[in-house]
Structures are given as structure tokens and as C-alpha cells.
Amino acid sequence: MDMEGISRLTTIFGFDYDSVSPLIFTQLNFWFFFVAVMGLYVLLDLDTKWKTICTATAVTLGLVFFQFYDTALLLLAVGLNAFYLLSENIESSEKKRSLLIINLGYLGYLVYKLFFDRLYFGLSYVDFWLLFIVFVFLLARMKKTFLVRSVFLTVVSLFFYFKSSGFYVCLLSASLVLNFFMGKWIFVAETEKRKKLIIGLTVTLNVLILGYFKYAYFFTSSFNDLFHTNVEVFNHFARWGNGFMGEGTFVERILLPVGVSFFTFQSISYIVDIYRKEIEPVNHFFHYTFFVTFFPQLVAGPIVRAKDFIPQIKQPFQLQNSDFSWAVIQVVKGLIKKIVLADYIAIHFIDQVADSPEAYPGFVSILAMWGYSLQIYGDFSGYTDIAIGLSRLMGFKLLENFNSPYKATSVADFWRRWHKSLGSWLRDYLYIPLGGNRTGGIGTYVATLIIFFFLLLITGWYALIFVYIGLMILYIYGVLFIKNFKKYIHRDLNLLITMVIGGLWHGASVNFVIWGAMNGCALILYNYWKRISPYEANQGRLVHFWKIFLTFNFITFTRIWFRLEGDGQPELMLDRIMNHFGFEWSVFVQVIETYQAVFVVMILGYIVHWVPQAMKTKWELKFEAMPLYAKALSVCVILIAMYQAVSDVSKPFVYFQF
Questions:
Q1: By C-alpha distance, which of 354, 331, 308, 393 is closest to 572?
Q2: Mean pLDDT, residues 490-506
């Protein structure tokens, strides 16, 4: 009996959880989970004949499971054959040829194991990726049981969330109930005044939930420091939960639930869109819960809008060859970005420099920050590539979240390309309601005042009061004596507020405020510069290169405050760069030789990033044109090569902390 296999399956599907989710895209456990979901997903709505066949196969599999030596190999063989048995849409000759190739390969592998027993994959990446590639096709059997599909995927998604956050799934469930019925209430409210009251209450409750779990300790500590008090934080939700379910059920310390920022923003957009009459509330509760909890994007985005996703819930599943090929490319590309680019250069270079910048010459810090720009892009865009690819395999289309951001020619262009779902959310639900480019209102002044008090709280700098008073005097003078001053200052304030709040969304820290404010100021300056710049419309190669170079280095510079979150750490790195640059050719050569593999990966990563999109599309079309077995073989070869770069230490996705 394969005890390793039983132990792994028990870990995956048992009711326990880890503070670092065992169901992460880069871990084998997730792919076991995903294949099981896909198999059940398909089985729900098969014809009676096929249900009987699949059930009989499952029973046989269960009986053999405890006797067969290599569980993964058995699953692989049964899965591959079951797929070709059910795949009616595959032309007969190709089906027979592919089935023959698969079984010959299976028999050859089995013979090798029996006689030589040197190559043992067991429950390894190679075996399971073969199984995964096959089972995604089973989704083509899914028909029009939309409600069953929503119920099933809601349950799966809640289980997925439970595996990473434990009983904080109760918080997610409460959020689902609250926002579903509030959406209904807003829609049937008869007067505009009542609608505004309901939306104000709903948004406030959502923001309070987010603020409580994300900022409670920070605000309390800052309050105690500012007013010399001794206020203590305790977890009200845990205390109530332990009262109902017994002591020890919930941890008393407030922990940040995974993905709370993402599902809160998603819920707010749903409520606001109903208020704006852009959508109608979802009729069935489980269609709404499916929209919010859809597990590929639940914990780290992209942030999905109701108007983009909900119409797809009642559409029949379709997976064309082009969709399948594109999805597989996204998944493989995302894994390469995360494992080869992000994790490798972070573990072997960036973390070492960032944790002790004083131990390196200043120029090494610059190299590390260039690497960090590649790391955070590979990490976050890698996650969303996988999420978008998996969603497409399941029949749902999520919008693009990254568009080659380091090809940007200005800060404004960069923010149109980077984390597009968050950028569009902040634009539509914060920047435009504040007045956008047109004007400012009471919201602009209230937000400015709130940010001022927030900065006073987190810094303890009482001198900010005099700075604020001075700025108000300048504002009044400008409004009275400078033409169009009010129009432009309101636009600039709205933009700055949006970016500062975007920084605070990432965490309650002075460093995040500085990071957001620097990007906000850069956007404001660009709005004025582009009106007078002689290069704005210039498409020359040298000018284009220079724009990209300046934009990339500015964004990288601001990330010093994003990466080094501790008090005084950014200043320490800046001091090394400014006062201890220490560039010498011999030292430079020594650094290159020491981190040779890292710099090769970095250079290749940036080259691939800057390759023209037309060339990348051409490669994707070539993959699409390949026969099925060739696609499977090429993907497996890539994965085998990719996992050679896997480090002993695995890093969680960066945006899990947000």
C-alpha cells in the first residue's frame, strides 16, 4: 500500500489548515485538489450512461488503490484512458493514435519500474502534471446545470479558503450573506435617500471589517504611542466564536485572513454597481457566492467585477482548442515566472542584500532593486497568469491583470499596465467619485483630512499640523488669486489621495504611504509635463528607449520603500547608495561571479519581457497548432526543466500579505 499517497490525500482533503496554505499553485497539493475538483465538476452533469461508467471506474480505482504499489501511476493510466473514452469531440483516428501512444508510454514506464526500479516519480510533479493536462479536458462534458455548478464551486471554494485560513471562512461567509442581501435591499429601495443610506452603511461595514483585521494592532499601537495610553487589542470575533463553539476553536490573536483585501473590494464593487444601476442583483444566493469565492482568484486576485463575471455563470461551457492552448500557456508561464524568476532570484540574491544592505557596496543595492522589480512582477503576474489560465480551463474568462508593465513610457502608462484590476477599481470607486479630472467636492476635503490624521497617527510628527495649516493657506490664496487654480488643485488632490490610499491598501506603514505618495506626485508632474514636452509625441527609437529607461528606474526607486518595510530600512539602503556606492571593477567582477546564475536569470527575464508581443503571439499560435500528445510532451519537458530551479526554501506569493 502506498502510504505516502494516502498521507498526502489525507492532508489535502482533511479538515485541517496551515498558516501557509497547502493549496498554493506552485505546490503539488494544489494540483491534486484541482484535478479532484475537475473530475467531480464534470461528473455532476454527465448523461446517465457516462455517470455509470465513471462511477464503476471510481469504484474499481478505490478497490485497487490499496493494493497497487504506485498510486500516481495508477491514477495516470486510468485518467488518461478515461479521458479518451469520454472525449467524443476528438476525431476518431487522432483518438486512437493518441491512446496508443499513451498506453505504450505507460507500459514502457511500468516495465522500467518493475525491472530496474531506479526511476521513481511516485507522487511527483512529473506524474501529476501529466494527469492534470488530461483531466482538464474532462470539463468539456459539463452541460447547463448552472445552479448545480455554482453550488458545487462555492463549496469547493469555501473549502479551499478554509485550508488556508481555517475558521476565518466564517468571516468570508458572513461577508457573503451581508453583501448579497444588502444588494437586494439597495435595488428595491424606493428613494434615492434610502439608497444612499444603505450603500453608505454597506461600504462602511465592509471597510470596517477590512480595517479591523488589517490595521487593528497598528492603530492601537500608534494611538498608545501618541497619547501615552495602554489600550489592548483583543479579537472580538474569536471571543464570540469560542463562546459558541468552545474555547480554543479560534485563535485569540487577530490574524490577517488571506485575501481579505481582494474579496472586500470585490464585494464593494458589486454593491456600488447595483447602486449605480450598472447591474441588477444576482437572483440566487449561490450564483453570488460563486462570483465572490471562485477559488483560482480568491486569495490574491485579480479583482473581478460583477458585470464582467456574473453573465458568464449562466453560459454553457465551451473550451475551444485555442482556449485550451492559451490557458495551458498561461499556467506554465505563470509557474515559470514564480519559480524560476521570482523565487530563484529572491532567495539567492535579493533577500540577502535587502536584509543587510550595510554589508554590500551601494551599487549592489541598485542591482538588487532591479532584481526586485523582476521578482515582484514575476511573483504577482505569475499568480494571476495561473489564476486566469485555470479559470479559462473551467470555462470562465477573467480580464488581463498585467500588460508588459516594464514597456511603459511614463508613470501613467505604467499604472495602466500594472495590477490593472486594482488600478481600475481605485479609479472607478475612489478617484471618479472624488471628482476625478473635473472637480472636487466634500469627499476630497474629507479624504484629505482623514489622511492627514492618519499620517499624524502613524508618524507622531506634530509638525504636520503646521504643514497642513500652511498648505491650507496656500490653497485659499490660490483659489482667490490664480485662474483655474481650483480645477487643477482638485484634480491633483484626487490623484494624490487615490495613490496614497492605494499605498495604505498594501499596509499601514509610513513606507507604504511614501511609496503611494511618490507615485501620486509623479503622476501629477507627468500631467503637467506632457502638455509642454517636445518628446510626448516623438516615436523615435532613442526617445522611446529613454522614456522606458526613466520610467522603469523611477518605479524601481520607489520600491525601496515597498520592499524594505521596517522603520529606517529604506534610509539605510539610500545611505549605502549615496555615500558608500563603492563601485570598483574588481568588486563588480566578484559580485557577478558570485551571483552569476542569478544575473543570467535576470537578464533572460528582462529580455523575454521586452520581446515584442507579436513574436510571443506567434509562439502561442505554434503551440496551438501542435497535436494533443505533442502539447502534453512539450509541457512536461518544460516542467521537468523548470523544477530544476526549485529552491529548498519556498517563498509564499508576495500579495498573500495584502
A1: 354
A2: 81
